[in-house]
């Protein structure tokens, strides 16, 4: 059974980014397909971020670092970024060691204050 596409622009939910569940372990042959999927998710719904659920990747290693770097590169070339969901603490540490920075789900975006933090100005503070 098929149905026609609705007319007009596709619905984009700004609150819920696209999610790509990355199964583990990923073989070298699957990397290109996952990169294509990231590009498709960014182009398909006008999103700027694709959340990559990496909880099922298993023990981190350089193959996982290579995969994530390639996914980020594919996303940037498509005008977006990836955000990691449920990374293993060892993966987080390994990414720090190799010098790659990824936005993790639940962390405030760059330039935004952490949740629950309010800026306040004390009276008598000099203007900057």
Describe, in plain words, how this protein is organized in 3D.
- With 128 residues, the chain is an alpha/beta fold.
- It contains 3 helices and 4 strands, in the order E-H-E-H-E-H-E.
- A 4-stranded parallel sheet has the order 1-2-3-4.
- Helix 1 runs parallel beside helix 2.
- About 5% of the residues have low confidence.
Radius of gyration: 18 Å
Q: Could you list the spans in which at least 5 consecutive residues all have pLDDT below 50?
A: 8-13
Number of separate helices: 3
Indicate the structural class: alpha/beta
Q: Major sheet: order of its strands?
A: 1-2-3-4
Range of strand content = 5-15%
- Overall outline: globular
Largest sheet: 4 strands, parallel
State the separation between the terminal residues, measured CA to CA: 64 Å
Average of pLDDT: 81
SSE layout and pairings?
Layout: E1 18-21, H1 28-45, E2 49-53, H2 62-77, E3 81-85, H3 89-98, E4 103-104
Helix pairs in contact: 1-2
Summarize it:
This protein has helices at about 30-45, 60-75, 90-100; strands at about 20, 50-55, 80-85, 105.
Brief descriptors of the model:
alpha/beta
């Amino acid at each position: 059974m098929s149905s026609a596409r609705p007319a007009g622009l596709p619905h984009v939910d700004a609150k819920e980014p696209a999610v790509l569940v990355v199964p583990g372990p990923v073989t070298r042959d699957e990397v290109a397909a996952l990169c294509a999927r990231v590009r498709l998710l960014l182009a398909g719904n006008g999103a700027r971020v694709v959340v990559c659920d990496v909880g099922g990747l298993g023990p981190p290693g350089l193959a996982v670092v290579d995969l994530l770097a390639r996914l980020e590169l594919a996303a940037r070339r498509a005008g977006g970024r990836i955000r990691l969901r449920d990374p293993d603490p060892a993966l987080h540490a390994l990414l720090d060691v190799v010098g790659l920075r990824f936005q993790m789900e639940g962390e405030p975006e760059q330039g935004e204050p952490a949740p629950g933090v309010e800026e306040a100005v004390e009276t008598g503070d000099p203007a900057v």
